[in-house]
TrEMBL record:
The lineage of its organism: Bacteria, Pseudomonadati, Planctomycetota, Planctomycetia, Pirellulales. This is Arginine N-succinyltransferase. The gene is astA. It holds the Pfam family AstA. Its EC number is 2.3.1.109. InterPro entries: Acyl_CoA_acyltransferase, Arg_succinylTrfase_AstA/AruG.
Length: 342
């Protein structure tokens, strides 16, 4: 498996992949024209990695199965959210009220709208073809972005967030949307989700101006606040194992949690180092380490996973990994253990 920047030739396969996403994966639209626009946006972003400030550039990656040459997964990074059009979220706050007269105490969860014009970096668009899940590919795909962040920190903000897909069923019904959003926006969730990627003006126009008491929503909607779609549990686990945490922000449409971490504290970023390749061998034994490895010569970033051994002079790579990344002795690579130790 090779992870590399998206190319124009991937469009057909990516578009096919997007048809498998079900509902709620906002940034992997099923509509081809919107997808094509995003691929072009990403091609522009990768063109110059030298002197860009984070201004909302989109970096889209694909995971390619090297044996079949098929695109089996994708993931992305937006260098900065917010800007002229804000990043919207609800902050879940707990309000406590007590009555001496009645001798009672109540805790209410209240949703407060926040609008951020100067937002963090956002990772997203994480999707793996169902046939390729469950064997560790998702971990490599998700973490590869962190080697890119470690390689080019100047392109990103110091804080990184991920908006996790919230609870939405197979027909596109979101309990939170049906209890809340539909009353204000008057359209269905899939439509609102799709429109929000194209033009967010309707959010500014129609979102309620006052805080929202969660107690007033249906029990299903209440239960969905800060919870994720069943197929998004692995994505959440992966980020949590890298140090990301939920801190009271949820999505305004389906109440999925926003996870966050300072860029420098992400486990893979923190543990990654750059060393030269000193040797390539056909098979490495017990003393080797399973690592995620990236190369970036001539600004061409690519990543994969495989066995390595660290020596005092540099790294020994297993030949399959070296072939996937087109590496020879003398090249430098960035690497980190695929999993946190202990
Ligand atoms: C997210 C991925 C790509 C993950 O791929 P895989 O399923 O192959 O991952 P995996 O390696 O099998 O599992 C990842 C980790 O989750 C754990 N895990 C798996 N199932 C679990 C479960 N039911 N409960 C608790 N933990 C579970 C595994 O042990 C593993 O952790 P260990 O490695 O520690 O053992 C995939 O599931 C997928 O395409 N899902 C559908 C799309 C989706 O919902 N994407 C996220 C949208 S939200 C988004 O895009 C923002 C987030 C982001 O960009 O990262
Ligand atoms: N409005 C939402 N919460 N959408 C979930 C987004 C899921 C995922 N982060 C994506 O990029 O597509």
């Amino acid at each position: 498996m090779l992870i590399r920047p998206v190319e124009e030739r991937d469009l057909d396969q990516l578009h096919e992949l997007a048809q498998l996403t079900q509902y709620g994966l906002t940034t992997l639209p099923k509509d081809r024209a919107t997808f094509e626009k995003r691929v072009r946006q990403s091609l522009r972003a990768f063109e110059d990695l030298n002197d860009a400030d984070p201004q909302g550039q989109l970096y889209l990656f694909v995971m390619e199965d090297m044996s079949s040459k098929k695109v089996v997964g994708t993931c992305g990074i937006v260098s900065k959210v917010g800007g002229f059009k804000p990043f919207y979220a609800f902050r879940v706050e707990t309000e406590i009220q007590e009555s001496h007269t009645l001798g009672s105490r109540h805790e209410h969860q209240v949703l407060h709208l926040i609008k951020n014009h100067d937002g963090p970096t956002e990772i997203g668009s994480l999707f793996l073809h169902p046939e390729f899940r469950g064997g560790g590919n998702g971990r490599v795909l998700s973490l590869s972005r962190f080697l890119f962040l470690a390689e080019y920190p100047q392109l990103f903000e110091q804080k990184v967030i991920a908006e996790m897909r919230g609870v939405v069923d197979e027909a596109g019904h979101s309990p939170f949307w049906e209890a809340f959003g539909v009353h204000f926006f008057g359209i269905d969730f899939p439509n609102a989700d799709m429109l929000s990627l194209i033009n967010k003006d309707f959010i500014e126009e129609l979102i309620p101006r006052h805080p929202v008491y969660v107690d007033l929503l249906s029990p299903e909607a209440q239960a969905s606040v800060a919870n994720v779609h069943p197929n998004t549990i692995p994505a959440r686990r992966l980020l949590e194992s890298e140090g990301f945490a939920y801190d009271s922000l949820v999505d305004i449409f389906e109440a999925g949690p926003v996870l966050h971490s300072p860029l420098k504290d992400i486990r893979t970023v923190k543990q990654s180092r750059v060393l030269p390749v000193v040797s390539i061998e056909s098979a490495l034994g017990e003393d080797s380490l399973l690592a995620i490895v990236s190369a970036q010569d001539h600004q061409y970033f690519r990543a994969s996973s495989g066995k390595i051994i660290e020596t005092s002079h540099g790294l020994v790579l297993e030949s399959q990994l070296a072939n996937e990344l087109q590496l020879a002795v003398g090249h430098s690579v960035r690497f980190a253990p695929l999993k946190a130790s202990g």
